[in-house]
Write a structure and sequence with these properties.
20% strand; Rossmann fold; single chain
Amino acid sequence: MKVNQAEFVISAVGPSQYPEDGLPEIALVGRSNVGKSSLINRMINRKNLARTSSQPGKTQTLNFYRIESKLYFVDLPGYGYAKVSKTKRAEWGRFIESYLMERDRLKLIIQIIDLRHPPSADDRAMYEWLSHYDMPVIVVTTKADKVPKGKWQKHVKIIKEDLQLRSMDKTVLFSAELGIGKDELWAIIEQAADLTENEPDSEQVESSSSED
């Protein structure tokens, strides 16, 4: 997708605040500071629409970004940040689970995992939960620019095996810094959100031309 228009819409903490314009939604989940905001900014060709922070655990709401008036990216609070209180983590867990389970406009969940490291216990728990409820999910292994190219597939294999990735779930190697994986990820998102434009059938075009 060629993105010319993108805007932050709302930071929501419950269904009453979710957008009601009926656009498909793509959710991003991952541990704190894994690079969700950087991924969004790369995908929409902006430097800081989605604000990045060196302080893990800062995102405490569901942040909705409207893209080309065709879909939303929904940035969910990062998981696994120890300095967040148990009470706050439980509160986040409830409204995140409610959104993922009940939002009928949710078309795809992108779970982001740092390519440099094996999945954490929280990464595994999240993927297991998504798989248990048969949710549409892909795994994006980000920060590829921090790993030598010759070791990319080795690291991806470790992540797949550690997560026990289902055969139908795709992985995308990604770097927000270099733009690696951007086009592949957009193709998957457009298909999930049913935004792919149908090309006219060549035989129909030829038939139409011959009748003129």
